Amino acid sequence: MSWINICDEKALPSFGGIAAWIENRAIAIFNLKEQGLFAICNTDPATGVSLLSRGLICELEGDIFVASPLHKQHYSLTNGQCIEDANLSVLLYRVRCENGRVWVQPTSEAIDSLSSGS
């Protein structure tokens, strides 16, 4: 599957997220500096609202999460699972930085785990 050029790396806030629209889907891209880039579906499965890119980043139980701004569910940036509700999860996307540009590989299947530059 081909990669889609999203933005210049400098457009990503440090330890924060941005929203992007690719192939009729909203995604959230997070820049966690040394920990890498992460991309997930931007839609909060608990509410159906597209806002996870505005969530707070935190570490819980040795994993990295984004907390939904509405009801504060925590979604893992490494496996997509919600820590509060095992029935909720978000789709992950492969993301990389190359020559100062951020690229995302859209997929219709969840990625079990990913690392920066995959």
What topology does this entry show?
Layout: E1 4-8, E2 16-22, E3 25-31, E4 37-41, E5 56-60, E6 63-67, E7 74-76, E8 92-98, E9 101-105
How would you characterize this protein structure?
- By secondary structure, the protein is an all-beta fold.
- It has a single domain (4-105), classed as Rieske Iron-sulfur Protein, CATH 2.102.10.10.
- It is 0% helix and 42% strand.
- It has no helices and 9 strands.
- It has strands at residues 4-8, 16-22, 25-31, 37-41, 56-60, 63-67, 74-76, 92-98, 101-105.
- A 6-stranded antiparallel β-sheet has the order 1-9-8-4-3-2, with no helix packed on it. A 3-stranded antiparallel β-sheet has the order 5-6-7, with no helix packed on it.
- The protein is globular, with a radius of gyration of 13 Å.
- Residues 112-118 have low confidence and may be disordered.
Short description:
The chain has no helices and nine strands. With 118 residues, the protein is mostly beta strands.
Q: Which segments are poorly predicted (pLDDT under 50) over 5 or more consecutive residues?
A: 112-118
Order of strands across the main sheet: 1-9-8-4-3-2
Number of helices: 0
The radius of gyration over CA amounts to: 13 Å
Kindly state the mean pLDDT as a whole number?
89
Total domain units? 1
Q: N-to-C SSE series?
A: EEEEEEEEE
- Say what the CATH topology is: Rieske Iron-sulfur Protein
**Which bin fits the share of residues in helices?**
under 10%
CATH class bucket: Mainly Beta
Shape: globular
The CATH H-level homologous superfamily: Rieske [2Fe-2S] iron-sulphur domain
Strand content: 35-45%
Secondary-structure arrangement, i.e. CATH architecture: 3-layer Sandwich
**The biggest beta sheet, please?**
6 strands, antiparallel
End-to-end C-alpha gap? 13 Å
